[in-house]
Specification:
Blueprint (H helix, E strand, L loop, with lengths): L2 H13 L6 E7 L2 E5 L2 E4 L11 E4 L4 E6 L3 E5 L4 E11 L2 E15 L8 E6 L3 E5 L3 E7 L2 E8 L1 E6 L5 H6 L2 E4 L2 E6 H12 L3 H9 L2 E3 L2 H34 L8
Parallel strand pairs: 8-9
Antiparallel strand pairs: 1-5, 2-3, 2-4, 4-7, 5-6, 6-8, 7-8, 8-11, 9-10, 10-13, 11-12, 12-15, 13-14, 15-16
Length: about 250
């Protein structure tokens, strides 16, 4: 089956309300996925599952379709680990992704209070309910930039996600925060001493506004992401009409 045919099958399934959650849509350069010691070269149409760690090398990137509605762009020398997908969480479900390097999220309209996306790095935790944001996690610090919507953020002082959500502050559109290993240590101290006020002052004091150069840099990246999405959807719609007219084309080699 041709690659476009495979992607179209997923697209048709999506249109009926049974979309695979995370599907590789564009691959540039060297991109692999690891799971339980096995390494596989990533291809268009691959469905990512729990336990997968997708990694890009230098001068490489990968675009992951989210339910056929949004995108995750994994930039060069970066990785995304799929720790949980559609796991029961309270009265809803949650996805938990780990990030290393630079990853752009455009997931507006996909997640909500009952369908949560949590993103983690070594130093930061973010909970999202549908928005556009960027996570840059390098060495001992993580920076989260909110381009649209709102994101809850907390230092990674515990592995308990309920506690992290409860201790999160809100970043709004046009805001960013940098959380380092030292910040995690300081946050842990406030929490252990039950100094809620001190914790809030400390964490809120780390919020900053995006500077113009950052706004311009991310605006260009998001525009490119949207253009790729429009192009792919247009291509798939065209192929959809062709395949509906002649279904046998789906199985052509």
């Amino acid at each position: 089956m041709k690659k476009i045919g495979l992607v179209l099958v997923l697209f048709l399934v999506s249109s009926l309300g049974f979309a695979q959650k995370y599907v590789v849509d564009v691959v540039i350069g060297d991109v692999v996925v690891r799971n339980k010691g096995k390494v596989k070269v990533v291809d268009v149409g691959d469905v990512l599952k729990v336990g997968d760690v997708l990694s890009t090398k230098e001068d490489s990137e990968c675009y992951i379709s989210v339910e056929g509605k949004g995108y995750i762009k994994v930039e060069e020398n970066s990785s995304v680990s799929f720790e949980e997908i559609s796991k029961s969480f309270g009265s809803g479900t949650k996805d938990s992704l780990g990030v290393v390097g630079s990853v752009i999220f455009s997931v507006k309209g996909i997640f909500s209070k009952s369908k949560v996306l949590n993103v983690k790095s070594d130093t930061a935790f973010a909970t999202i309910r549908g928005t556009e944001f960027v996570v840059e996690s390098f060495r001992d610090k993580t920076t989260i930039y909110v381009l649209e919507g709102r994101v809850g953020v907390a230092p990674m002082f515990t592995k308990n996600e309920n506690t992290l959500i409860a201790k999160s502050i809100i970043l709004s559109e046009g805001e960013k925060i940098e959380i380092s290993e030292i910040d995690v240590i300081n946050a842990t101290s406030f929490i252990n001493n039950k100094d809620e006020e001190g914790y809030g002052v400390f964490l809120n004091g780390k919020k900053q506004s995006l500077i113009e150069s950052e706004k311009e840099r991310f605006a260009k990246r998001m525009e490119m992401l949207r253009e790729i999405q429009k192009k792919r959807l247009k291509e798939l719609e065209k192929k959809k009409k062709e395949y509906l007219k002649d279904p046998s084309k789906l199985f052509e080699e």
